[in-house]
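Hello forum,

I keep getting stuck at the same step: I have a sequence, I want structure tokens, and every attempt I make locally crashes halfway through. Rather than fight my setup again tonight, could one of you with a working pipeline run this one for me? It's a single chain of 257 residues.
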Amino acid sequence: MTANRSGIQHENRRVLVVGASNETGPAVARAFAAQGARLALSYCTDRAAAETVAGECRALGAPEAHVFPLDLLDADQCECFVGGVQEALGGLDILIAVAGAGGSYRPLLETSAREMREAFQGQVCGNFTIARDAARLMPDDGSGRIVFISATSSHKYSHATYGYAKAALNQLTPFLAYELAARKITVNTLIPQLIDLPSVAPAMREKRKQFTPLGLIPSPELIAEHCLALCSPAFAIVTGECYHLDGGYRLRPPEDR
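Reply #2:
Ran it on my machine without issues. Output:
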């Protein structure tokens, strides 16, 4: 366990991070690990990367960190995925759904129905299936949490199937929150704009900062901190909300975005 345990709120809580092998997912996993959470981490193709993240999490203080393959485009795999997590952790308290799959920025008039179905499966149906089954394992004592990670593309009509699918994920949030409220499980979504990742070209990063009123774009670590907060006791009363982490980007006139 880490030396400084002040402010710990997630010790021994059972946390599933979907999409923990790259980009934002590892930061989320490490944040919960540093608070002593027990972890299940999913990956799509890169098991070695997921195992590396799991090792980092154990070094940070996670009592256990298991890795599981998961392709959100595979509906059958999604249907049976949570069973393996239950065997490893004995249940769940928190789901952080970072990953999505499918979707493009091509115009809708150039998009096939198959591509639309794929985007919906990878961004919405897959995450819904995991969330539904995860909720069945959560306690009814007010500690159950589900957090989806969306994107500002959900408000950009030029982003076609990717944006439409993320918008559907946003809309799923209050519906699922309403149904799970009877069990005191909260459901919320974070909507970051362009995330400050190493893969983002410096020119793109600076351009987006210029178009953002606060001149800030979110880092994976910042997103992770918000996940920790939404899963804390202080947010037990908050559900069905979509939080923008965009530095005011959505406040710009459409022609400036």
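The chain has a mean pLDDT of 92. If your local run keeps crashing, start a new thread with the error log.
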